[in-house]
Structures are given as C-alpha cells and as structure tokens.
Amino acid sequence: MSFRFPRGVVPLSVLGTIAGGAILLRDTLVGGTSRYPGEEEIIGRTVVITGANSGLGRVTAEDLAKRGGKIIMACRDMKKCEEVKKEIIEATMNKSVHCRHLDLASLSSVRSFAEEFNANERRLDILVNNAGVMGISGRQKTEDGFEMHLGVNYLGPFLLTHLLLDKLKSSSPSRIINVTSAIYEAGYIDFDDLNCAKKYTHESAYAQSKLALTLFNTKLAQILENSKVSTYLVYPGLSKTNLGRHLSINNSMISGNIVKPFLSVTMKNAEQGMQTILMCALNPDLAEESGFYYKSCRMAPLKKIGKDQATADRLYAISRVWTGLGLEAK
C-alpha cells in the first residue's frame, strides 16, 4: 500500500525549504540583518545625505531626523524630494528637514550645492555619500563627459566631499560615510580606459566606480589623519532600493514573476540596510577610527585591492584634475 502526501503538503514543504534557504543565503551573502541599538541624539548637528528621497538615503534621513538633527536632503528630483520631506516631517515632528538640489552627474551642480551650503550653513557634522546608479545597460555620459557610473558613484562624491571639507573640519569632530558595494572586490581601475570608451559592460563599470570610491576612502583617511574628521566605508548589504532601476530585470516578465520574488526574500529592506550607516554616523566608540570598512554593524577586512597605495595615489591625482580641483599641493 503506497502512501501519498495530502494535497498541498509537498508544495508547502518545498516552499518552506526554499524560503529557509533564501534567508540563509541573505544572512551569509548579503551581510545578515544586524541592528544598531544606539539611541544617540544629534540635536544641534547638521547632516547632508545624498540620494535622500528614496531607499537607504530616505530611511537614514528619517532616522536621523527622529534623533533631532538638521537634515539636508541632497537630491536630483526636487519634486520627489519635497514629497518625501513632508512625509519625514510628519513622521518625526522635526521641521529641520530641507531639500537642496544636487545632481552628481553634473560637476557644476555639485559646485553650486557646495557653494550654497557653505554660504548658508553654520556647520556640517555628518556627510553621507549615499546616492548612486547601477546597471545602465548602454554606455552613457555625465554632463562633463565621464562614464555615468564613474561620474555619479565616484567623481561627484569626490568633488562634493572636497568642497565641504572646510566646513567638516570647522565642525569637528565630524564624519564622512562613503556607501560602497562588495562588488568593489571584482573591480579594476583601468587607467588606460577609466571612462570605458573602449569596452563597456554595466557590471564592470559599476564595479570600477565602487572600487574607485573605496580607494578614495583609503586615501581620504590619510589626508585627514591629523584632523578630527573621520571617514568610514560602509557596505549596507544587498538591499531593496531603486539603485538598480536601470537593470533589465525590472522590465522582464519572467524576472518579475520568478527572480524578483526570490530576491525580495534574500535581500535586506532599506531599514535593515541602513543599520551600518547609522552605526558609523553615530557610535561614539568609532570616533577615533577612520579609513576602515564596515558591514553588518561591525568592522570587516578590506581586500588588498581596496587599499593599494599606488593605485589610490594615482587615481586621486587624476580625480583632482578631472574635477577641477587641480594638482595637490606638495
């Protein structure tokens, strides 16, 4: 006599196994779901967050607003920024939340933002370089002619950080948080083709841009060694944000019905993803640390490729020229 499972039992058990495996994959591959427990208030402090109208930037802005900070939402889409600003004010009862236009694909926009900020703001305590792009299928250029991933994910934040350094120093102790991706490990700085004009794939362009930001964090910590400005490199984990809005997965019926539901289980939500950002922005125990890499609310080893001194120095020199800062004073 053969035994048959009741109808629905096998499918449910299979789904349970898949779901359990997906959660295990999330915890091992995308960085777990550790939470930052600190309850620090930041009343009287000013925070700039790029890309603050969605995803990690939005939830970070709301959390820091709850803690009493003055929040500057630096965004390209001002209509959306104003909508989100109202939501944050309603949720936190903090009216010191402001929208300022910033398009990281335009160096003139970066300069305009910094000029206005430096003229009108008394201090800057926390700078979160969060905004970015990923998965642009066809090679695109910024307003200044740079490959889009390189321009938005690296050169824009590079210039913004330098233009705000004096304000950060005068407000010290202060902090800079550079949001990277674990994909930096697969990156390669091709000095013969930094703008991917000879060969382009969105995967390699994105990886190069995140490696560039990682090397910048390494170099920046050295530059700021004798100041009270600390810099932190944060991998928030694979999070459900609109960063990959350009990816073809978002326009595929099969991907939409199969792949995206799987990813929704394995990926962190934005609130989970922001925890390490919060830790680096707020934790008093990290005040004396600078230049290190963090994920899942703890320090993590940085691969050799992310701290290669010769590459960091050469890239830094090129970036100063490309962004109009000029050669570094000897």
TrEMBL record:
<comment type="similarity">
    <text>Belongs to the short-chain dehydrogenases/reductases (SDR) family.</text>
</comment>
<keyword id="KW-0560">Oxidoreductase</keyword>
<dbReference type="GO" id="GO:0016491">
    <property type="term" value="F:oxidoreductase activity"/>
</dbReference>
<protein>
    <submittedName>
        <fullName>Uncharacterized protein</fullName>
    </submittedName>
</protein>
<dbReference type="InterPro" id="IPR036291">
    <property type="entry name" value="NAD(P)-bd_dom_sf"/>
</dbReference>
<dbReference type="Pfam" id="PF00106">
    <property type="entry name" value="adh_short"/>
</dbReference>
<dbReference type="InterPro" id="IPR002347">
    <property type="entry name" value="SDR_fam"/>
</dbReference>
<dbReference type="InterPro" id="IPR020904">
    <property type="entry name" value="Sc_DH/Rdtase_CS"/>
</dbReference>
